[in-house]
């Protein structure tokens, strides 16, 4: 459903190459997670996929209709309540569904609050609710759960897995957290430092969120990812 | 809460005035009663009430033209950097030019009638309106517009839900300042160029050595300011309520 070929991105004004060469495909109903060092171009990649940045070379093909984007920052409208922020992206949608989704992300009691009266994690969950209510075919998530405590983060990961299981939504999820990726991903892409290329790419077949990270297989995978990130760090070209 | 402080501050001013009128002769500080009588005289005379309307008309004209021109210039200087740089020095000059100098030129153009008063009020509020519209546009969060486009909001929805709410606070604060400036300059222009309107009557009261008349007309000007401000606020609130249900 999403095919990226030979994507390259340079910020011309700063003559800074963010992405050197990236190609991959996200299939229907797949959870692809991207791990990469800070500043390697992950948000840049999501901005290109979501049409917010059209200045790149290579091809990006999306053959469905709607892309929901949970930005790295919440990007809520400060003058609208939680409920209004969610509803605004789909005014024809079923109003009752707003409550259901707000309940899923555990902020229903705050639906009449303005964003400034919410915590960072709550704002982020409101931003997720918005993307879910939009009725996305592809969901882009940019470190969505970074400011949540361990328990809540687990709940949210389960929610993402459930949405993926119950619907046909594909998910492209950017994270710094290797455990998170190992728990949830169907496929993990590891990016190098900037200018980024894909340095590792593997699939995990067990059902999302039903995996035991204590299992030797996952311990090995984790080691492998950490090693890749460290190796490529030394080889990376610093500009 | 602020109401309480308004009342207290009003009482303080009245007390100082009352003490002043006991200490100084009426020609220097007229008594509260004299000013009250003078106001009643003004408000009960159709001829004098008409003078208030004259000033109101000039005031509204200046505000209308000032806001229209200011919005257009402010809009373009908000979206275009070259234009912004070009008009910046002009705005600065406008801000430091003494209103009286503008007034004298306006008299040479329009003669001794109400028009110079309109012209000077217009020029006095123009910089404020331009700057507030420009700052409002410059402060629109580009990332929120990106968000709107990502979720395929319509152009109208982006305008209504993102752009206008971003600009509005700048414009309302600019509006309040420019309304005050317009009230002051219109009356000043009238004092110096015509015998009509509130300003014309203030200079008449001065010639007749009636300080209570000067103060009465001044108070009427202040009331005019609050009435217009209240009216505009009510209109804006109505507009906001109509928008609230998406
Ligand atoms: N608008 C921009 N103009 C110029 N350079 C930019 C712009 N946006 C990002 N960059 C640069 O591109 C590189 C990648 O940025 P990006 O935000 O994609 O990183 P990231 O992988 O999302 O990092 P993080 O994990 O910290 O969020 C950085 O070096 C950044 O300085
Ligand atoms: Mg990022």
Indicate the topology.
The complex is a heterodimer of chains A (239) and B (246).
Chain A: E1 2-11, E2 16-26, E3 31-35, H1 42-49, E4 57-62, E5 67-70, H2 82-87, H3 95-104, H4 120-133, E6 138-142, H5 150-166, E7 170-175, H6 178-184, E8 187-191, E9 196-203, H7 216-235
Parallel strand pairs in A: 2-9, 3-7, 3-8, 5-6, 6-7
Antiparallel strand pairs in A: 1-2, 1-4, 8-9
Helix pairs in contact in A: 3-4
Chain B: H1 2-23, H2 32-44, H3 46-79, H4 81-96, H5 99-110, H6 115-138, H7 142-150, H8 155-193, H9 197-207, H10 211-244
Helix pairs in contact in B: 2-10, 3-4, 3-6, 3-8, 3-9, 4-6, 5-6, 5-8, 6-8, 7-8, 8-9, 8-10, 9-10
The structure holds adenosine-5'-triphosphate (ATP) and magnesium ion.
Magnesium ion binds at residues 42-43, 72, 142 of chain A.
Features:
heterodimer; A: 239 residues; alpha/beta; 9-stranded mixed β-sheet; 7 helices; 34% helix; 25% strand; globular; B: 246 residues; mainly alpha; MetI-like fold; 10 helices; 87% helix; binds adenosine-5'-triphosphate; binds magnesium ion
In words, what does this structure look like?
The complex is a heterodimer of chains A (239) and B (246). Chain A is an alpha/beta fold and 239 residues long. Chain A has seven helices and nine strands; from the N terminus they run βββαββαααβαβαββα. In chain A, strands 4-1-2-9-8-3-7-6-5 form a nine-stranded mixed sheet, sandwiched between helices. In chain A, a hairpin with a 4-residue loop joins β1 and β2. In chain A, α3 packs across α4. Chain A starts with a strand and ends with a helix. The C terminus of chain A is likely disordered. By secondary structure, chain B is mostly helical. Chain B has a single domain, classed as MetI-like fold (Orthogonal Bundle). Helices cover 87% and strands 0% of the residues of chain B. The mean pLDDT of chain B is 90. Chains A and B meet through β5 of A and α7 and α8 of B. Adenosine-5'-triphosphate binds next to β2 and α1 of chain A.
């Amino acid at each position: 459903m999403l095919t990226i070929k030979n994507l390259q991105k340079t910020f011309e004004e700063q003559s800074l190459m963010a992405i050197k060469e990236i190609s991959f495909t996200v299939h229907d109903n797949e959870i692809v997670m991207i791990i990469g060092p800070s500043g390697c171009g992950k948000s840049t990649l999501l901005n290109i996929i979501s049409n917010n940045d059209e200045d790149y070379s290579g091809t990006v093909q999306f053959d469905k209709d709607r892309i929901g984007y949970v930005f790295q920052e919440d990007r809520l409208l400060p003058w609208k309540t939680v409920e209004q922020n969610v509803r605004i992206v789909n005014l024809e949608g079923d109003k009752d569904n707003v409550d259901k989704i707000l309940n899923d992300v555990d902020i229903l009691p705050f639906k009449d609050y303005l964003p400034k009266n919410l915590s960072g994690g709550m704002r982020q969950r409101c931003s997720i609710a918005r993307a879910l209510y939009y009725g996305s075919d592809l969901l882009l998530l940019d470190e969505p759960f970074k400011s949540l405590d361990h328990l809540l983060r687990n709940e949210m990961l389960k929610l993402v897995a459930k949405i993926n299981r119950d619907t046909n939504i594909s998910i492209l999820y950017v994270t710094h957290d290797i455990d998170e990726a190992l728990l949830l991903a169907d496929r993990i892409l590891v990016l190098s430092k900037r200018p980024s290329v894909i340095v590792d790419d593997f699939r995990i077949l067990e059902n999302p969120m039903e995996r035991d990270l204590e299992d030797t297989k996952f311990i090995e995978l984790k080691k492998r990812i950490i090693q890749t990130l460290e190796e490529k760090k030394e080889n990376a070209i610093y500009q | 809460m602020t109401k309480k402080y308004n009342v207290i501050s009003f009482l303080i001013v009245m007390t100082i005035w009352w003490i002043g009128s006991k200490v100084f002769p009426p020609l220097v500080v007229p008594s509260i009663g004299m000013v009250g009588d003078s106001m009643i005289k003004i408000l009960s005379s159709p001829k004098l009430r008409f003078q208030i309307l004259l000033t109101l008309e000039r005031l509204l004209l200046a505000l209308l033209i000032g806001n229209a021109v200011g919005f257009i210039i402010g809009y373009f200087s908000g979206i275009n950097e070259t234009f912004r740089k070009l008009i910046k020095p002009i705005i600065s000059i406008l801000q430091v030019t003494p209103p009286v100098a503008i007034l004298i030129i306006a008299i040479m153009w329009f003669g001794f009638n109400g028009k110079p008063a309109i012209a000077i009020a217009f020029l006095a509020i123009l910089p404020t309106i331009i700057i507030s519209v420009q700052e409002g546009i410059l402060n629109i969060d580009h990332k929120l517009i990106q968000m709107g486009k990502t979720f395929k909001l319509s152009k109208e929805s982006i305008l209504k839900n993102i752009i206008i709410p971003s600009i509005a606070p700048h414009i309302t604060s600019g509006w309040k300042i420019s309304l005050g400036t317009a009230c002051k300059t219109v009356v000043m222009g009238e004092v110096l160029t015509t015998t009509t309107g509130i300003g014309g009557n203030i200079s008449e009261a001065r010639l007749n050595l009636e300080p209570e008349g000067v103060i009465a007309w001044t108070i009427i000007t202040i009331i005019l300011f609050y009435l217009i401000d209240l009216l505009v606020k009510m209109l804006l609130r109505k507009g906001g309520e109509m928008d609230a249900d998406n």
